[in-house]
Amino acid sequence: MMANDRPAERGLLFIITNPLDKLLVWVSIAVGAILAVNMIVAVFFRYVLSSPIVWADELSLYLFCWATFLGASLAVKRSDMAAVTFVLSRLPFKGRVLGSIFIQLSILFFAVVIGYYSFIWVVSPSVMNQISPALSVKLWKLYVIVPFSMLCMALFSIENTLGLVRSLLRTGKGGAPE
C-alpha cells in the first residue's frame, strides 16, 4: 500500500522524496560508519593508550542523535515505525487503510509541530551563537538535524497518506485490495 507502487502515480512528491530517501540512506551510512570508528578509536585511546580524546564523547553523542533522527525519517518513509498492530491487523481492509491514514496524519501533525518549534529553537540567538565545548562547532549546525528530519518525516507521511488514499479509492471503484 505504498504511494510508489505504480509508475503513473509518481508525481512531484515522488520526484522530491525518492532522491531525498537515497540521500538520507547514504548520510545515515556515513554517520553510522563515523560513529563506529569514533567509538573504537576513543576506546582504544582511553583504555589502551590511557590518553582519552577530549572531543570523542561529544562527537559520539551528536552522531548518535543524527543517526536517530535520520533513521526515524527513513522509518516513516518505509512505514517501518514500531507499532502495536493488534487492533489494526484485525480490521477489514478498509478499516486497516483508514487506521493507517490516521496514523500517517498523526505523524504529519507531530512532524509539523516539532519541526516548527525546533526551527524556531535552532535559529534563536541562544543556539545560533553558542559553540559546543569540545568540538568547537556552532550548535545550530549540530541541531539542524531536528527540523530537517521533521521536514523529511512530513514529506514522507504526506506521500504515504496519498498512497493509502489512492489504494482506498481503487478498492472503492472495484479494484482489488493491495
Automatic annotation (TrEMBL):
<keyword id="KW-0472">Membrane</keyword>
<protein>
    <recommendedName>
        <fullName>Tripartite ATP-independent periplasmic transporters DctQ component domain-containing protein</fullName>
    </recommendedName>
</protein>
<keyword id="KW-0997">Cell inner membrane</keyword>
<feature type="transmembrane region" description="Helical">
    <location>
        <begin position="97"/>
        <end position="119"/>
    </location>
</feature>
<keyword id="KW-0812">Transmembrane</keyword>
<dbReference type="Pfam" id="PF04290">
    <property type="entry name" value="DctQ"/>
</dbReference>
<feature type="transmembrane region" description="Helical">
    <location>
        <begin position="59"/>
        <end position="76"/>
    </location>
</feature>
<feature type="transmembrane region" description="Helical">
    <location>
        <begin position="23"/>
        <end position="47"/>
    </location>
</feature>
<keyword id="KW-0813">Transport</keyword>
<dbReference type="InterPro" id="IPR007387">
    <property type="entry name" value="TRAP_DctQ"/>
</dbReference>
<keyword id="KW-1133">Transmembrane helix</keyword>
<feature type="domain" description="Tripartite ATP-independent periplasmic transporters DctQ component">
    <location>
        <begin position="37"/>
        <end position="166"/>
    </location>
</feature>
<comment type="similarity">
    <text>Belongs to the TRAP transporter small permease family.</text>
</comment>
<dbReference type="InterPro" id="IPR055348">
    <property type="entry name" value="DctQ"/>
</dbReference>
<feature type="transmembrane region" description="Helical">
    <location>
        <begin position="139"/>
        <end position="158"/>
    </location>
</feature>
<keyword id="KW-1003">Cell membrane</keyword>
